[in-house]
Amino acid sequence: MRKIKKGDDVIVLAGRDRSKRGTVLRIVDADHFLVEGINRVKKHQRPNPAKGDTGGIIDKEMPIHVSNLALFNPVTKKADRVGIKQLEDGRRVRFFKSNGEVVDV
């Protein structure tokens, strides 16, 4: 089970966008996530008439490493570490390490 999933609110811990908050849009690979509004770069794009793309400089989000992200805890309004525990009924759930509150029910 992943500690951070698609759709989670995360905070950036390190890098140019430190302390910014965003939502995970998709998982690129095991260690990289695409986060909304985070790690934006300007990319020079060549026009492709076959696809209907116009050329120019576009703003684009690039993947960020999972080690630079932490889950946002809405109770404490801060970044928090996440653990995984098994409930009595056998379900595995994520919980915040600071207050023990379950992330997903």
Ends distance: 14 Å
**Percent of residues in beta strands:** 35-45%
Rg on CA atoms, Å: 17 Å
CATH class membership: Mainly Beta
User: How would you name the oligomeric state of the polypeptide chains in this document?
Assistant: single chain
CATH architecture: Roll
Task: Describe the overall structure.
The chain has 105 residues and is mainly β. It has a single domain (9-96), classed as SH3 type barrels, CATH 2.30.30. The chain is built from no helices and 10 strands. It has strands spanning 9-12, 21-27, 32-35, 40-45, 56-61, 64-65, 69-73, 78-80, 82-86, 92-96. The strands form 3 sheets. The protein has a 6-stranded antiparallel sheet, with no helix packed on it. A hairpin with a 5-residue loop joins strand 9 and strand 10. The radius of gyration is 17 Å and the shape is elongated. The mean pLDDT is 94.
